[in-house]
């Protein structure tokens, strides 16, 4: 069952994209449909809230990464928040944590919306030794 949900709302200075359920090759077109118009607007800073996202595959990761790195640098990087420890570990294994601005929670992102999050909260490897598959992450 593909129970993926995506919602878009303004939460200055970000456009907040909240994800829940399972983001995979079947559901990724719905995310692309929501994100494409955001990327077409100048000065859009996207924050992907992944707190309720239970599963992501490589197709879903690709959309998130593309959206985050396509955000114009002068306006700050696109960012993610609410990653589970398993998802953060997966992104770290793939070398993606260093390419994304990662906030622990939505509240942290909104409190510290600079291009770089507060020290110790993003763009670093967590050093965790969790195990996981390198293509997908499932959160229980």
Short description:
This protein has 140 residues and is α/β, with parallel strands linked by helices.
Could you describe the 3D structure shown?
Helix 1 (about 30-40) packs parallel to helix 2. By secondary structure, the chain is α/β, with parallel strands linked by helices. Helix content is about 30%, strand content about 25%. The model is unreliable at about 115-140 (pLDDT under 50). The longest helix has 13 residues, at about 30-40. The protein has helices spanning about 30-40, 60-70, 85-95, 105-110, and strands at about 5-10, 15-25, 45-55, 80, 100-105, 135-140. Strands 1, 2, 3, 4, 5 and 6 form a six-stranded mixed β-sheet that branches. A hairpin with a 2-residue loop joins strand 1 (about 5-10) and strand 2 (about 15-25). It is globular.
Shape: globular
Give the strand tally.
6
Order of helices and strands: EEHEHEHEHE
Distance between the termini: 16 Å
Question: Could you describe the largest sheet, including whether it forms a barrel?
Answer: 6 strands, mixed
**Backbone structural class:** alpha/beta
As a percent range, the share of strand residues is 25-35%
Please estimate the helix content: 25-40%
CA radius of gyration = 14 Å
